[in-house]
Design goal:
Elements (H helix, E strand, L loop, with lengths): L1 H8 L2 H12 L4 H8 L3 H10 L1 H27 L1 E12 L2 H18 L5 H11 L3 E13 L3 H11 L1 H4 L1 H39 L4 H12 L3 H6 L1
Antiparallel strand pairs: 1-2
Helix pairs in contact: 2-5, 3-4, 4-5, 5-8, 6-7, 10-11
């Protein structure tokens, strides 16, 4: 049964549908579902029928290039032009000139046509209304930092890969934790010394030395953690 199905998909109409799904970004599994077959069957047909492979590859490449070009333009900034239109009646003299031109051509192509037929064709085929441009707006879209970051991370991974940012965040976290521990130790020492002075009016020199040692090695966390 599946063998008979492939024939309609290698026709021009079938290949256009397959290519359209590929251009829309559908996966092979989704395309196979739309075709009413299993993914394994699609893989089999791709091996047997080069037309299907070419339809998928061509349209996927077109879609990739379109997205890549849009991403590049968004990363760098782009100028876009927007136009507005409206439908208006064709001026009487312009309409008559167009109908006269149409009738002359029609006579040459249809030498046996009567004058009445020619007049009727001109009335039916020459439009009395047309679309005209009413305004044009130029907009400048600024560069998008997110698009630029994505582009650089994928085009220059050695320099802009996510791991570099992750390593930096990890180093910052380690330093923050070390600073927090140091601050907590200092607070405990200060509290201990205060209690000693309040209760016995004596001062523990060892605790004082430890506090000074922490002060002297204030930058030591940065050096060891990095």
């Amino acid at each position: 049964m599946t063998q008979a199905k492939y024939k309609k998909w290698i026709t021009q109409e079938g290949l256009i549908k397959i290519g359209g799904w590929a251009r829309d970004g559908l996966t092979d599994k989704q395309i196979a579902h739309n075709m009413g077959i299993g993914t394994s069957t699609l893989y089999k047909w791709k091996k047997q029928h080069v037309e299907i492979v070419e339809a998928l590859k061509k349209e996927k490449e077109v879609a990739d290039y379109q997205v890549e070009n849009s991403l590049f333009q968004r990363a760098c900034g782009v100028t876009i032009v927007e136009k507005t239109y409206q439908m208006v009646d064709v001026k009487k003299d312009v309409l008559e000139n167009r109908r006269t031109k149409f009738k002359n051509i029609y006579k040459l192509d249809h030498p046996k046509a009567t004058q009445e037929e020619i007049e009727q064709e001109a009335i039916e085929k020459v439009p009395t209304r047309e679309r005209i441009q009413t305004a044009e707006y130029v907009k400048q879209l600024p560069p998008d930092t997110n698009a630029a970051t994505f582009w650089l991370r994928n085009r220059k991974p050695d320099k802009y890969r996510d791991q570099n940012f992750a390593a930096l965040n990890k180093a910052n976290t380690i330093k923050a934790n070390a600073d927090a521990k140091k601050a907590k130790a200092e607070a405990r020492i200060s509290e201990y010394n205060a209690n000693q002075l309040e209760n016995s009016q004596t001062y523990n020199p060892l605790i004082s030395e430890l506090y000074e040692l922490i002060k002297e090695n204030e930058g030591h966390y940065d050096e060891t953690d990095n």
